Amino acid sequence: MSFTDTADQPRPPVETALRESQAREEAARADAQAGLLTLGYYKFTYQPLHDALGQVTGLITVGIEVTGQVLARQDLQQLNHELEARVQLRTHEAEAARAEAEEQRNRLLRLFGQAPAQINLFAGPGHVWTLVHPHTQELLPTRPLLGRPRRQALPELPSSSYLTKPLTRDKISQLLLEYFPPTQARP
Question: Does 183 map to a domain?
Fold first, then answer.
């Protein structure tokens, strides 16, 4: 086969098509409207025609416009790149915020640890130790306190209903009167 009838076709795809079928996308400018050149994408398939003896006698070229698909894929790739950049930025911001929160927590723990009063912090209905003042731990050196419920860490303490039930204003007033009774006026 000669290239005289395929002079306007790119040679490598045609030569490859003579050996095997091939499809590929190419950018091409086409006269779309009133003589204006616009960018378009086309998928060309080059298929050799064979005679009964298997000799190539011709070439079928089919071009299909795929501009919409290519532009959509390019837009998707661009959006993916932008999304990856935003995810990296948000991850960096979250890591910085976590580091700042950890630093603030450590400062607070140091502050409580240096306080002259034995400040211990508890959380939840089981009163789990979330902060143990160093002096408290010195008083109970063989007891693991941090992360344990108060009753588990110190089982010998009496059960106190005011520690296990929600406090209301009335209950607080009752406790204050019980432990700090008002003094009677003297004549």
Answer: no
The total number of structural domains that make up the chain: 3
Instruction: Give start and end residues of each alpha helix (H) in 2-148.
Output: 11-19, 67-114, 134-139
Stretches where the chain sits below pLDDT 70 are 1-35, 159-167, 184-187
Cα 147 from Cα 122, distance rounded (Å): 9
Q: Encode 61-93: b = buried (16+ Cβ within 10 Å), e = exposed.
A: eeeeebbeebeeeeeeeeeeeeeeeeeeeeeee
The domain of 47 spans 4-65
Query: pTM for this one?
Result: 0.49
pLDDT digits (tens, 9 = 90+) for 97-146: 999 999 998 998 888 888 888 888 888 888 899 988 888 888 888 989 99
In the block, tokens 């960018």 appear at: 39
